[in-house]
Specification:
Blueprint lengths: L8 H6 L19 E2 L2 E2 L1 E2 L10 H13 L10 H20 L8 E4 L2 H10 L1 H5 L5 E5 L8 H10 L2 E5 L9 H11 L3 E5 L11 H10 L3 E5 L11 H4 L3 E5 L10 E5 L1 H6 L10 E5 L2 E4 L13 H17 L1 H20 L4 E4 L9 E6 L4 H10 L2 E2 L1 E3 L4 H6 L5 E5 L6 H18 L2
Parallel strand pairs: 3-15, 5-6, 5-7, 7-8, 8-9
Antiparallel strand pairs: 1-2, 4-10, 9-10, 11-12, 13-14, 14-17, 16-17
Helix pairs in contact: 2-11, 3-11, 4-6, 12-15
The structure holds ligand 7TS.
Ligand 7TS binds next to helix 4.
């Protein structure tokens, strides 16, 4: 990739203290777009990230020169496609420091990865009265699959409350662990609404101490922080390509090998079998046991290129960049009258800031910001229980990534100040 110490020209022009983009902005073709006559200020990377040309080019080159179905025998093109597809799996395995590439299962996204565990592990291991421990700050993807599993098995879903500052109530967590003895703790590694980074190492250690497994919803962490499954010592980890500069349509379930070996298959069909007979079938080895049908082949190649891109930037630097932007943004937003930010201080959050501005409905605010070319998300962010906890119908949310600059945060702050004036009448 190009020069990774690039400083964004616009941010430099802004003066001292400005934070340039970590990745070269020119790697991201969409960032040259104008929206409503203004330069695009894309502040919705928590929903989906923009793609660098390195990812677009890798997918284009693969499709033009090496595309075929995978695992389809002895012709050259299929061998090339298979090796690109399986090569991407190796990149992902290295990126999260998996012990074996067999632990990396392709899914469509985080949602499907969590559903896979909730269908296979949960159905095989939960019985009536067992507890599954979640938290009040989960995305619907890490709530609904467990509610469905509970309905099938008779298990109960129990929630760890959060504090007013948007952090996990760890005393309540300890009490619930002791009282409920859950079989599984499923928790977000980073809240997509509050940006909260729960103390997952402590959560995992304490859950393991009572014999519970831990699934981390890493949809917001793998794209933004160094994530090492061996250091974390979690049991399952779920994330999506489209939030980490890769294409949509592919995601990952990482699981401990012995757990995956013992789990029944998820979907049935081609590729996931060893033998099929009219009176029964046997299953393929890991990871293919969980991968039925023709997968997202080109998308796997794209995800592999995204992993290369992020690795070249360095995940620690990604984290530091976003931390600096978040601290800067919290500071800028604090000076806007009527603006309330939800969630913890910059040290304990990732690059996500949810806020409300006076009585202005977040949807109206997002529409107004769009007139200035600024893309923020408004709504419940697929975390309705969290909104209920704060008695809010919705928030507006700005989220940052490797291409974000402090000049863009300045543009947001100025547009919000302007919004106050517009809605004052
Ligand atoms: N978990 C978390 C923490 C998320 O932020 C998301 C997506 C998901 C799970 C689901 O990921 P998917 O790829 O399966 O859809 N979060 C958001 C968001 O905040 N705005 O749009 C999608």
């Amino acid at each position: 990739m190009a020069n990774t110490t690039h400083i964004d020209v616009a941010a430099q022009a802004h003066g001292a203290g400005a934070i340039g983009s970590l990745a070269p902005r020119e790697d991201f073709p969409i960032l040259t777009r104008e929206i409503n006559g203004k330069p695009l200020v894309y502040l919705d990377s928590a929903a989906s990230a923009q793609k660098p040309r390195q990812v677009l080019d890798a997918m284009d080159a693969f499709t033009r020169t090496s595309y075929a179905n995978i695992h389809r025998g002895a012709y050259t093109l299929s061998e090339e496609a298979t090796s690109a597809y399986e090569g991407a799996r190796k990149k992902v395995a290295r990126f999260i420091n998996a012990r074996s590439v067999r632990e990396v299962i392709w899914t469509r996204n985080t949602t499907e990865a969590i559903n896979l565990v909730a269908r296979t592990w949960a159905d095989a291991n939960l019985k009536s009265g067992d507890a599954i421990l979640l938290t009040e700050m989960e995305h619907h993807s890490n709530i609904v699959p467990w509610q469905l599993a509970a309905a099938r098995t008779g298990a109960r879903v129990v929630y760890v409350p959060i504090t007013d500052s948007g952090e996990l109530d760890m005393a309540a967590f300890d009490q619930l662990l002791a009282a409920e003895r859950p079989k599984l703790v499923a928790v977000t590694h980073m809240s997509n609404v509050l940006g909260t980074l729960p103390p997952v190492q402590e959560i995992i250690a304490r859950a393991h101490a009572i014999g519970a497994l831990v699934l981390l919803d890493a949809a917001q962490s793998v794209p933004h922080l160094p994530v090492d499954v061996r250091v974390l010592d979690c049991d399952f980890l779920a994330f999506s390509s489209h939030k980490m500069l890769g294409p949509s349509g592919i995601g990952v379930l990482w699981g401990r090998r012995e757990l995956l070996e013992a789990m029944p298959p998820f979907l049935g069909g081609g590729d996931m079998i060893r033998e099929v007979h009219l009176d029964g079938s046997t299953w393929n080895d890991l990871p293919w046991k969980f991968e039925a049908g023709t997968p997202a082949i080109t998308e796997a190649v794209g995800l592999g290129a995204a992993v290369d891109y992020l690795s070249a930037l360095g995940m620690q630097r990604v984290r530091e960049h976003e931390h600096a932007l978040t601290a800067y943004a919290l500071d800028r937003l604090a000076s806007i009258p009527g603006l309330i930010v939800y969630g913890p201080p910059a040290e304990r959050r990732g690059g996500v800031i949810s806020f409300t501005l006076g009585d202005i409905h977040p949807h109206d605010l997002a529409t107004l910001l769009d007139r200035d070319g600024i893309a923020v998300r408004a709504g419940h962010h697929c975390a309705q229980p969290l909104m209920e906890r704060y008695k809010l119908p919705a928030t507006a949310r700005a989220s940052f990534y490797v291409y974000t600059t402090s000049a863009e945060i300045d543009a947001l702050a100025e547009a919000l100040t302007h919004a106050n004036e517009v809605f004052a009448f």
